[in-house]
Amino acid sequence: MRATSPVTAGRGSELTLIDEALARLRASQGGSVFLLGEAGIGKSRLARESADRAGRLGVCVLRGRSSATGLTGPFRPLVEALASYSRVGGLPEDPELAPYRPALSRVVPEWRRAEAGYPESMVEFAEALLRLLVVLGRERGCLLVLEDLHEADSETLAVVDYLVDNLAALPVLIVATLRPESGAALDLVDAAGRRRTAAVLTLRPLDTSGVRTVAAGCLGVAEDRVPSAVVDRLAGHGGGNPYLAEELLADLVESGAVRLAPEGPTVVGDLVTGVPTSVVQSHAQRLGRLDPAVGHLLLTAACLGSRFSVATLQMALGVGEQHLFARLGAATRAGFVTPVGRGTDQYAFRHALTAEALLAVPAPPERAALARRAATALEDADPVLEEDRCRLVADLWTTAGERGRAAAGYAEAGRRAQAGGAWASAVTLFERAAELAPAEDRAAVVESLAQALAGAGHLERAFALAETLGMAGADALDVGRRVDLHLRLAWDAVMAERGPDARRQVAAARALMPEPRGPGAGLSGQGAALAVVEGHLALLPGSSPGGGPDRATRTAEAEESARRAVEVAERAPLPVVACQAWHLLALLGRERGFDHADACLERMLAVAEKHGLQLWRVGALVRLGVNAFMRTGSSARLEVARQTARALGAIVLTQDTEGMLAMHAVLRAEYGKAREAIDRSLGATARLRNLSTHRYLLLTSATLAAHRGRRGEMDQELDRFRRAGGADSFLTPVVLGLCRAFCALMEEDRAAAAEELAAVAAWEAAHPNVFYLSGSHGIGPLLDVLAGRADRAAHRAHAAAPAGELAWNHQFLLLAEAVLLGREGRGGEAAAVLATVHDTYGALFPAAHHLGLRLVAEAALDDGWGDPVSWLRAAEEYFHTADVTAVAGACRALLRGSGAGVRQRRAGRDRIPAAVRELGVTLREYEVLALLAGRPSNAEIARRLSISPRTVEKHVAGLARKTGRSDRSALCALARLLTAEE
Question: Rounded to an integer, what distance in angstroms lies between the CA atom of residue 415 and that of residue 114?
Answer without folding.
Answer: 21
